[in-house]
Amino acid sequence: MISDLGDSDLAGCAALYAETFSAPPWNESWSVPDAVQRLADLLATPRAYGVSIFDGELLGFALGNLERVGAEDHFCLREMCVRPGRRREGLGTALLDGLAARLPGVRQWYLLTARDSGAAAFYERNGFRPAQRIGVFVRP
């Protein structure tokens, strides 16, 4: 069942986040306390929206925020993950649909993800496309 994400969900979401992004293909170094801090910061962002899906346990969540661009609101999907072993069951699509239902009228969404990844293919199957005019620049 899709439900709104709140502060009471942080511990479970942080554990899932650390498990997910510390494993392949991401192999990032996440502790649960660090994940709690990241997700708490994102939830505290003005106009943040998040959803989770439970079926006896937390199966996944998605979180982002609205940003004003000219006369429109755009949605930045900041984090999303689905429990390993439960991927490719439609849960990620259900999370995106749950967010979309809470964001009527928002036509433009964007996110950052690794190119040529399973995540990129998932987002493309769900209507996203690579940006043509925007690049991401990093500074060490």
From TrEMBL:
Record-level Gene Ontology MF annotations: acyltransferase activity, transferring groups other than amino-acyl groups
Source organism, top-level taxon: Bacteria
InterPro entries tied to this protein: Acyl_CoA_acyltransferase (IPR016181), GNAT_dom (IPR000182)
Domain N-acetyltransferase: 1-140
Transmembrane feature ranges: none
A Pfam family hit: Acetyltransf_7
Entries under CDD domains matching the protein: NAT_SF
Protein name: N-acetyltransferase domain-containing protein
Protein species of origin: Paractinoplanes rishiriensis
